[in-house]
Specification:
InterPro entries: Cas12f1-like_TNB, RNA-guided_DNA_endo/Transpos, Transposase, Transposase_put_HTH, Znf_Sec23_Sec24_sf. With 417 residues, the chain is α+β, with helices and mostly antiparallel strands. The protein contains eleven helices and 14 strands.
Length: 417
């Protein structure tokens, strides 16, 4: 019996850029809008049901409405399509509808599990587009691969998607193409960013690992993340902070002021922003600047995380609460610029991918503790951000602040194993 995606032991995600035709762009926009509409319709029905249940007086019209909504939410796909006939148009991918409903239910599931992101919210229209579909395999397909599903590769530069047809793509790693017969495709996301670039993200699974496990090299490292030099490890290696946003901040601010002026002029002339060519032209310039910073930062973080995981059997980092740290208005911009949370996420999934170990520990007192004798600096002697070097009053050891913290982080990580 053929295994499902969930039953496969190894999973991987790839994102490739695609180049759709004008007709394909229209279909992507229609499916994106429909996906957002279905999500919002589910959200609206649940909110109505919640508030109607707060009514304690047994009014017939309220009870009938509650019964109707409860029945519709049992089979939301059929109920929404029956209420809004335009969703039955042949332009729409039926699996897009199913995935929109699934995503809404998943959002509720995450809320009940984590209670941090809040309840599902209304998705407003923006300059980006996205929708999800799924790759299905027919009953006659005995060995699912990347070339025989409803989402499939037709050759090394083209793929086939439901409703869209044949799309040219670039950027699929050679290691995936070489093993196309051993890999099956799962959920597929079609998206467009604010600049107008189109992408297809493929969730793929296999019986065999996508990356060869790295050999043990008996190397352990603790890393201290900071704003002064981005990263210092317990081996005294320092990675400088590139500060990509600061490099482009002035140019971006100038472009945003220009965008704001054009928005005011369009409003004064009673033109919609979507129909104002000057505004849209400038919006594209701002989006390109922001995309450049995001891509530079992501590329930097990928190189750093891959080097750390490949060169060490164990990597230990401090568990940072970026949300709390961003409340410090003096450091908020610098904290957002470095991308610490993104780095920790990359280290976590790459450790699983390469068969390494990655831990996060409580950072409490890792900076204030002497890594040589364990003395903790407290009270008036407590270190401030300005103290980059200090001498332990107990054992007299001279410490470089960040290197000492990295050694303490590694020691804490080893103690938890």
């Amino acid at each position: 019996m053929t295994k499902t995606m969930a039953q496969l032991p190894y999973h991987y995600g790839v994102k490739v850029r695609v180049f759709p035709s004008t007709e394909q762009k229209r279909l992507i926009k229609r499916n994106s809008d429909a996906s957002r509409f279905i999500y919002n319709e589910m959200n609206g029905m649940n909110k109505d049901l919640f508030w109607l249940k707060q009514v304690k007086i047994p009014i017939t019209i309220v009870l009938n409405r509650i019964a109707d909504l409860t029945e519709r939410l049992k089979q939301p796909s059929t109920a929404i399509s029956n209420s809004h006939g335009w969703l039955n148009h042949p332009d729409f991918d039926s699996l897009m509808k199913a995935n929109a409903i699934k995503n809404y239910k998943t959002a509720w599931k995450l809320f009940h599990q984590v209670h941090q992101a809040g309840t599902p919210k209304f998705h407003k229209r923006g300059y980006t587009q996205t929708y999800q579909t799924s790759c299905l395999y027919g009953a006659k397909v005995l060995e699912p691969a990347m070339s025989n599903g409803s989402v499939r590769l037709t050759d090394t530069h083209h793929l086939w998607l439901p409703k869209l047809g044949r799309l040219r793509f670039k950027g699929l790693p050679p290691k995936i193409l070489e093993r196309a017969n051993d890999i099956r495709i799962g959920t597929t996301t079609v998206s467009m960013d604010a600049v107008g670039h189109y992408f297809v993200s493929l969730q793929i699974g296999s019986e065999h690992p996508f990356v060869a496990k790295q050999h043990a090299i008996e190397s352990k490292v603790g890393i201290d993340l900071n704003l002064d030099n981005f990263l210092t490890d317990s081996n005294e290696q320092v990675i400088e902070n590139p500060r990509y946003y600061r490099m482009i901040k002035g140019k971006l601010a100038k472009a945003q002021r220009k965008l704001s002026r054009r928005a005011r002029r369009a409003k004064k002339a009673q033109r919609r922003l979507s129909e104002s060519k000057n505004y849209q032209k400038q919006r594209l310039q701002v989006a390109k600047l922001q995309l450049k910073v995001a891509n530079q930062r992501k590329n930097f973080l990928h190189h750093v995380s891959t080097a750390l995981i490949k060169n060490h059997d164990l990597v230990v980092a401090e568990e940072l609460r970026s949300e709390n740290m961003l409340r410090n208005h003096a450091l908020a911009m610098s904290i957002s610029d470095v991308g610490w949370r993104t780095l920790l996420g990359m280290l976590a999934y790459k450790a699983d991918l390469y068969g390494r170990k990655f831990l996060t520990i409580d950072p409490r007192n890792t900076t204030q503790t002497c890594s040589h004798c364990g003395h903790v600096m407290t009270g008036k002697s407590k270190l401030t951000l300005a103290d980059r070097k200090w001498t332990c009053p107990s054992c007299g050891t001279l410490h470089v602040r960040d290197h000492n913290a990295a050694k303490n982080i590694l020691a804490k990580g080893l103690a938890t194993l």
